[in-house]
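User: Just a sanity check before I run the rest of the batch. Below are the structure tokens for the first item. I only need the designed sequence back.
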């Protein structure tokens, strides 16, 4: 796995042999550690956002990309806890490999060290936008032609009339499966959008 650099600035990680990324320019290429560039955010970081993290990273690996994500929550009441077992079960049923998870809360460092922060519903989006203003943080990112904060379902390809991933916490396994199906669709669209805007930025 390699990293593509432009003027020594780290950009999208990709396998240069991948036909989807036939870069026409000469860049400095070197091995560097993978670091998360996208952070998914929900309420407590035990259901929706860790699910999105697992799905996004799996899709990225399957496309020979090293673009990685992590996740966080708005609230502190689940800090240190594992993913909800129902979310884990839905992912494993879907064929995903799910590692250890420790819930964390959103903070300024996440905004500074991630290119894009993705909200799972409109309440999260509003909170994150307000957080940027309150902490005088940059509302733009340097890697992609996208806003710093956006709503995950904005990138949906199959559910144009759904703008949020509903919280499955108070539901049953069917609610977790439904949330997963929405997340899968939107993460696929997000990944396509990120790679497309990246190539436009360096073209």
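Assistant: Here's the designed sequence for the first item:
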């Amino acid at each position: 796995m390699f990293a593509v650099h432009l003027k020594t600035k780290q950009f999208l990680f990709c396998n240069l042999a991948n036909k989807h990324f036939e870069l026409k320019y000469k860049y400095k290429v070197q091995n560097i550690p993978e670091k998360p560039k996208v952070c998914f955010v929900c309420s407590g970081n035990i259901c929706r956002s860790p699910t999105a993290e697992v799905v996004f990273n799996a899709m990225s690996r399957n496309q020979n990309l090293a673009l990685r994500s992590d996740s966080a929550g708005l609230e502190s009441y689940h800090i240190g806890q594992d993913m909800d077992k129902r979310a884990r079960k839905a992912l494993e049923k879907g064929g995903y490999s799910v590692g250890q998870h420790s819930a964390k809360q959103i903070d300024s460092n996440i905004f500074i060290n991630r290119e894009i922060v993705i909200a799972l519903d409109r309440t999260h989006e509003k909170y994150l936008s307000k957080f940027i203003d309150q902490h005088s943080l940059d509302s733009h990112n340097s890697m992609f032609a996208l806003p710093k904060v956006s709503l995950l379902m904005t990138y949906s390809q199959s559910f144009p009339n759904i703008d949020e991933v509903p919280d499955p916490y108070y539901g049953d396994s069917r609610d977790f499966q439904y949330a997963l199906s929405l997340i899968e669709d939107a993460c696929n669209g997000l990944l396509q959008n990120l790679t497309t805007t990246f190539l436009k930025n360096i073209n």
